[in-house]
Amino acid sequence: MRVLGIDPGLTRCGLGVVEGSIGRPLALVDVSVVRTSAQLAVPERLVTIERGIDARLDEYQPDAVAIERIFARSDVSTIMGTAQAAGIAMVCAARRGLPVALHTPSEVKAAVSGNGRADKAQVGAMVARILRLDAAPKPADAADALALAITHIWRGGSQARIDAALAAAGRKAR
Amino acid sequence: MRVLGIDPGLTRCGLGVVEGSIGRPLALVDVSVVRTSAQLAVPERLVTIERGIDARLDEYQPDAVAIERIFARSDVSTIMGTAQAAGIAMVCAARRGLPVALHTPSEVKAAVSGNGRADKAQVGAMVARILRLDAAPKPADAADALALAITHIWRGGSQARIDAALAAAGRKAR
To answer: Which residues bind Mg(2+) 2 per the record (chains A, B) (predicted)?
Structure first.
């Protein structure tokens, strides 16, 4: 499966495309960051982000989109822009009928590093190792977007196996 | 001028279209509320809101869009959805090149009622009086959307007159 991971933000929005499946090596397809100037009005900035996401969806045709789940308790000065960028990302995916999953930062950190409190350097290093890159993707928003896509493939896969196991158990019980 | 006022919200998004200019009676063009079920996923709800806003923009071709400015200090349980609905509204307008203005709730209350702390009933009653309606529009989201459009016409007009006066003063000074 191919997943577009999105680390939403008004100033930098990380977009990472990863392909693969559980138990097999994952591959980096594309990684980029949409940047918008704080000198532009917010509506213009959001449209730039929308265009950037749409361009990746057009080009890479992912099977699903994984977006970082935003909490209202995050930094108040940036929370509104981050929430709005995340909303735009959801709409871009949902308009195409693509499944959207939200993963919390600690879920992502735990998935890629085994530690829900890993720092940015650890996440970057693990993303590089998992995707067999020479170095951690820069900036951190790019690495975080790839980590979201990796998390989605791994968690989605294990969830599918759990569902299949439960369905099988249900059939046996009948 | 014709203005679409948007009171953003995930459960109820008020949309009010008002036409008129400073010093002349304003007219109600349309008012409606886009509702989305909490049982749907957020991406689907945001797409429904996007479609509702796009439909009004297509049908009524406003000259500007006025959206309630959201503050991070609002109710935490609804702030994310409200911020995302506001972001979608901004994108719908900016994609068409329409000017977008954000007005705070107290600016809107002050503009329509003369009191920045007016309650919902007072705002609804003043909207009805200004637009010569038989009763306050229901629900409150509908009245608030109309109040936003009224505020935009009145404030925009006075701002334009201030700009014109300053430009004239500048010409005299030269």
So the answer is: 68
